[in-house]
Amino acid sequence: MFDIVTKIIIVTLLNIKFIGCFRINHEMVDSTIKKWAPLIIFHPEEKFFPLSVEEYLEHVYPANSDGTPIKNDFKNDLNNNLPIGRSSHGVHLTTRMNLDDLKSSLSFLNGRNPDKFSVPSYVIVNECGMKKRSRGNFTFIASYWFFFPYNEGKKVCFLGSRIPVPFIPVLNKCLGVTKKIGNHVGDFEHITISFNSNYEPIELFASTHDIGAYYSYDLRGRVFRYKDQRRRKTLLKHINFPAEVRLDRNRPVLYAARGSHGLWGDRGRQRYYKLPNLYDYTGYGVVWRTWEDIQIYHLKYSKQPDWMQFIGKWGNPRDGCLWGLCELSDAPNGIVDRPVDFEC
Q1: Do the domain assignments include residue 324?
Q2: Which residue of 70, 150, 210, 257 shows the fewest CB atoms closer than 10 Å?
């Protein structure tokens, strides 16, 4: 009996980490992360769904910015030959097949409908310990990452081929030439939630392209309420983010924009850029229950897959650029090279 009790105590202690004077139970952390994993709803006209990173890597190769393959082609050995860290700087993960051919029919760029297939979400956990925040103790931060093999750009009105300048449509009509700008291969979207020592959320950050909104958790109302925003120089002084992110049985409900997958707290037309005017459109279509296939990595003690250390571009090099606006834009960098949403 003593041996059995001793073994139980040892196993329990192995799953508990002491930070400061607070004990973090890894099993509780993982359980909390799954409990608060978001419900993502796609636009009913969505054509480009999420995909696992592992499947995506089977269809791309590491190349220089001019498309020239580098020596380490990792098709047959993903873990050993994928450039990581400094060696991956400036590297583009380029499609093996011609991009126009891939877009002309269904391909891996369309991802997998998460209502029909199992598609993983990836969570990175940063354990902070005892930090005083707005309510309770700031104990750990969970960033939920979602990978999309293709980002569909936005239609932009130009004055014409001889005067390639963005132009605001008159009465919603383009008097020049319309081009789709900002397409790119490979895309990560994410949300981040900070938790206190009671394993309750404190704040949520919802990523929308390279901007986003911060929400504070209202425990009584059981809703996340708008607090602040992260924005760039878009000539919009203030972006009208939804006032709330509602819950569905403890799970934040986010709406992924059609084609571009920016995450918003409500359905409708969302304006996020001026000159040219750019809008996201969200609606009620396919539902992704992200907690059904979730991979959790703790920064301080879990071994992360090599692809998380790839800091290059996650898609083809840019092409067809006019005045800094590209029909095919550079893909974003890897997730370790993104701004921090919450500081420990």
Answers
A1: yes
A2: 210
